[in-house]
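hey so i finally got around to running the thing on that chain from the lab meeting. sorry it took forever, my laptop kept dying and i had to restart like 3 times. anyway pasting the input first so we r on the same page abt which one it is
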Amino acid sequence: MKYHIKIRGVVGSWWGVMADDVEHFLNQYKDKEVDVAICSPGGSVAEGLEIYQAFKDHGKVHAHIVGMTASIATVIAMGAKTVDMVKGSLILIHNSSTPVLEWRMANKEELDSIIAKYKKERKNLNTIDDLMASIYAEKSGKPMQVCLEKMKEATWINADEAKAFGLIDSVRADEEDAKVVAMADNYFNNIIKEFGLPALPVRTDSGNAVADGEGNPTESFLAKTWQGLKEHFRNNQAAKKVMSKKFSKVAEILGYPGIEEKDGYVSLSVEDMEKLEKHASDMEGKLADTKAELGKAEGELSDVKAKVQELEDKVKDCEETIKNLKDAPGAQADTNPAGEPTVEMADNEAGIKLFNAVMGV
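ok and heres what got predicted. didnt touch it at all, straight out
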């Protein structure tokens, strides 16, 4: 079967699947049917819930569980329009968990602080469990409490059991996908052990045997593993191209010609991490400076606006005064009334003569 997306590896990790990548793909396939293969041990609850909601919002996603799928990866499948499992696949729903990293000496006050921290974590886990149980309940039609009990059991269930519980819509027989399902149970156990999940059930059929009686890998196991690896790398070329762009930005910061991924990992030295830390601090400093300059500029602009308003008010007052003077009585008085003689004095002597004439001298 041809899949548009394959959700493998750890949810929320760059070598697994990221919510942003899934959402970006779905945006390119709006109003189109999308088939998604899921084979993942789980990972970040936050990232998984984003993908779950992206599936629901799209409305035309069909999830196909191929192989071993657990934890938040099963919640992701619940967001699809339809869900099926390839015959031989396994899923695991269980209570959420959080890392507990305390290896230290502590006095009573410090111990109280540690206890308070994990009490809060305990409360958060309870909320997450209720949320996941409500999602399983919505899909299966089972009461939420029944789903919580199933999560508490934390046991792997096969396709028929998943269908009976209502977590999937159908069981699919697919010879091609069955090859992928059959590969490397013990290899996968190494991964799920890191997640604190229960080991996979031992398969009894020889066709699916990982090791022979002496503990050596069987030919079928090696062949299926090689086939699975080839398929994995072939179907992740696009993701690697996107990731190489992200690496180029980091390489630019570190002053490297490039950063290469090897065996699913990228190594950075303490010096590299210090450079990245310094870069982040510098960016924060520049942002603070820019905000300060912007605040100063906004203050100066406010002062200028106030001065402009003051000048506009003065101009308005002056215009009003001029208008009042023009409209006042006598503003247009006649400087030469009719019948009055016009006298023009050219010099002082003419003035004296005029004075004498008037006084009768």
